[in-house]
Each structure stands twice: as structure tokens, then as C-alpha cells.
Amino acid sequence: MMQFQQLAKKNSRRLVREGAILVKSGLILVLALVFVFPIVMTVLNSFMSSEEIIANYGMLFDKTRNPWEMPAAPELPWIAPTAHFKLIPDLVSAEQYIEILFKSTDYLIKFWNSVFLVLPIVAGQIFVGALAAYAFTRFRGRLAQIIFFAYIILMLMPFQVTLVPNYIVAEWFGLIDNPLAIVLPGVFSTFSVFLITKYMRRIPRDYIEVAQLDGAGHWAIFTRILLPMCRTAVYSLAVLVFIDFWNMVEQPIIFLSDPLTHPLSVFLVKVNEGDIGLAFAASTLYMIPALLMFFHGEQYLVEGITHSGLKG
Amino acid sequence: MKLREKLHRDWPAALFLAPSLLGTALFFFVPFLLVIWYAMVDNPVIMNFVGLKNFISLFQNQAYLQAAGNTLLFSIISLPLVVGLSLALALLLNGKLRARSQLRSLFLSPLLVPVASVVLVWQVLFSYNGALNTSLADFGFIPVDWLKSDSARFVIIGLYLWKNLGYNMVLFLAALNTVPVEMLDSARVDGATAWQRFRAITFKYLTPTLLFTLVISFINSFKIFRETYLLAGDYPFEVLYMLQHYMNNMFRSLDYQKLSAAAIVMALVMMAVIAILFMVESRSGRDLEES
User: pTM for the complete prediction?
Assistant: First the structure.
């Protein structure tokens, strides 16, 4: 009997604890939903027809009248004078997507502009960075440390500092209005050097020495031994560099005067104001590569962030 | 092995650094020397040395002062918020929870999404004709033009927090992982309250990360131009006029003197911040070794 009572007490205590965990999880979930709300709203609204979007949000950018004093557009009575929150479409429609993907090529061009700007930067920066990391792994003398230190400082400098020298060089080489003015500084950005070096320096020297005794050259040691062991760093970099440059804003507005060559990260805003009927689908399409990166590479994102501290 | 032999064997490794070194020299380090020179001459063609005159005229420039002030004010307001809230988030997520890793993912997702693709939601919310005002009006409040009044600063801070809390949260979660559970357990057995345990044990292990995130967040806060530009464009309401807006105008008018001077002032500020960062890093490294 005693035992039974004790067991019941223990059970009820466990139940309370579990309940508390459940309630806490639920509350955190509510907070988390606030965080994903903008993403969810954009995706859901992308399945509205353009008419529905315009009827609801059409007056968003109308600066000519004060909606709080008079009806927004008496001649267009179906357009709401002010926007409401609307998550679920009245009628699910792929109209926005069809328009963007097949009819008006503007968005597709900008999408590919983004791709052709970002992919060379990701691939190039990782390649150049991995090579440099090998050198910094083999040399740890004073000169190497000084260069590495300069790299860290460069990595931490904001655009307000780095874009000015970039611009001067782009002008020397006649690269203004050329995507290379953005790609090349991106390739030589030192974040990848920093991150891969951190991983590579942690590999025990014995691996290198054994390979050297076997007669392996530098290239073989680099490609067959050290680089495969830094796979995690490379994947993390791919995610981090991609999301950083996929979101680029500063460089295109300074280096590319022709809006036709702009990436979507800058152009999307013009879609919002100019053609709000398509803006949600355009925004959703632009999110997809980043979201795919997230679903497949979240652990690498976390890994990369965790190891971006200066200490090894 | 003799030194010479070793040198002969190892020197090709230096070639691996060549692409990176040439690239950074060409695109950053060498032209930056020119930036320093440009900042001290009167004109990029005639090049009369004028000393600090460009800096003085920069600091007398109303637009620059406003841009620098807004940027600094933004950094100062958002810094404690972004660090404090992300620490709170990490502490919340660190306990026993259902679907913990999924919850963490939800908080992390804004980091991935390009700002441009969600800025529309912010516009729907905060435009003068936007949804927030519609709701406020339903309750009888007077609508506010959120993006064109002093409140714009807080709209931007909200967007910034939304986007960046996940980053620091990951750093704090990693640090919380290093807190020895046995120590917390034995403290509990000894009767320490949750707050006492946090202050005496957890916080000690968090301090290095805390200092690091403070400095790194300060550095990252200079990227706020992105959010501001996408939300409010080239010529935003004055409280949103950031340093990069000013720089963009100088790029447009090709005013190399102001550009160079502004870049150097920024570089000096960053050097000071980075020096603090290194001091923090080396001290916290020592602290951990001692403990």
C-alpha cells in the first residue's frame, strides 16, 4: 500500500512536470510562429490572384490621398482604401506564378542575375579560401600570423570601408557596370580563409608528416587529406556565403547603374511598388533557394555560426 | 632534417596563398592606401596636399553628421536588445522542451530569408495605408505614418531584431552546452535557487560568449542599411538616413574626398572596436583556462 501511494505520488509529480514542459513548449511555439509569420504570409499570399492582391493591398503605396479622410479610389470601389491582414486566399490561384515564370520575363532575368552573381562568389571564395588556408596551416611563423591578422581585420570591416577601395579598383580596370566589380571582391573576401584555416589548423600534424614521408606533394596533401577533413567547414561556408550574398544590396546599387543587370535582392522592392499583384510570388520564388539551403544545411549553418568566433 | 632542406620542401605551400594574397592586395589593401592619400588631397586630379582639411569639412557636413549619428544611435539602441533578447531566447530553448530542435529552426529561419523577400510584409504592416493602421483605426486610434515619423527607427529595430536574433541565439546555445550539468545539479542539491545557479555557474560560462556577441553585434549593426534601403528606399525619412545612404550619394557625385575621409573615419572606429574584440577574446580565453 505504501509503495502504491509513493508510486502514485511520483507519477503525478512526473505528470505535472511533463505538463509544465508542454505548456512552456506551447508558449515558445507561439513566439516562434511570430518569427515565421512574415515568411508564411508571403508564401500564402503568393497563391492569391492578382485581382485579390490589388483589391486588398492596392492602395498600399498610394501617396496621393489620405485614406483616413476620404475613400481611396471612389472610381475603383472594389479596392480597399487601406490594407488588411489576409493570410488565406479566397481562391487559390497560380496566376502570379504563371505571370512571373512564363509571361513577364523581367523577374526571371533578375533571378538569373542573382544566380550568376552569387554562385561564382560562393565557389570562388571557397576555392581561394581553401588554398590560402593550406598555406596558413603549413606556415605559422610571424609573417604568416601578421597576414592572417590583417585578413581578420579585413573580414570584420563593414561595407562603408571596403566599398571605397573596391570602387577605385573597379574604375582602374573599367569594371563599373560589370558584374565582375561585385564578384571579384566577393571571391577575395577573407571570411572563407579564416573559417577553413580554423578547421585545418586543428588537424594533427602527423597526418601531413606521414603523407610527406610517403612522398605526397603539397597538392596531394591538400586535396586528398586536409580538404576532405574540412568538409564541414566547406559546407558551412557554402551556406553562410550564399545567404549573405543572395541578400546583397550595397554592391549592386553602387556598381551597377543599369537596373536590368540588378539582382532580385534589389529589384524586388521595385516589384512591390510597381506591380504588387505579382510581388508575393516574386518574393516567394526568391526565398526558395535560401529555404532549400536551410532545410538541407541547417546543421552546417549552425556549425558555421558557432565557429565564427575568433578562437579555435 | 636540415633547415634548408625543409625550406626547399615547404616553400611551394606558400604558392597556395598567392591567389588570395594577390586578390586582397589588389582589391582591398593597395587601393586602401590610395584612399588614405585621397583623403588628404584637395582633388583626385590635381592632388594638392591639404592635410586634415577633408576630415574637418566632413565633420562640418550636416548630412554626414546626421547619417553617422543615426547609424550610431541605431547601434547603441539595438545592441542591448539584440544581445539580451537572444540570450533570453537561448535560455528558453535550453530547457527541457517538446520539439526543441524544430523550435530552434523556426527562430533561425529569418536569418536565411533575404530581407528583400519579406520587406513586403513590413510594408503591408507599417505603411500609412497599412494593416496596422487599419486595425488601430478600428479601435479608434489615430493612424500614424510609421515609416515617416520618429517611430520608423523602431520599425527598423524590429526588422533587425527579427532577422538577427537567431544568429546570437546559436552562439549562446553553443555556450550553454559547455555549462557542466553536474555542477548545476549539485548546486541544486545544496539548495541554490534557480537565479543563484544562473548567476554563479551558467553566467560564468556565458561571459566570454556574451562579450563576443556584444562586439560582433555592434559590428554587424553597421549592415542595417540593407533593411533601411529596402524598406524606405534611397531617400528615407530623416531618422532612417544611414551612413551608407550618405556614402551612396557621395559615390553618385564621385566625391572621392568625402568618400575617402568617411571610409577612414569608419575604419578607425572599427579598428578600435576590433581592438576591444581581441582584448575580450584573449581575456576570456584566459578566464576559461583558469576555471
Answer: 0.89
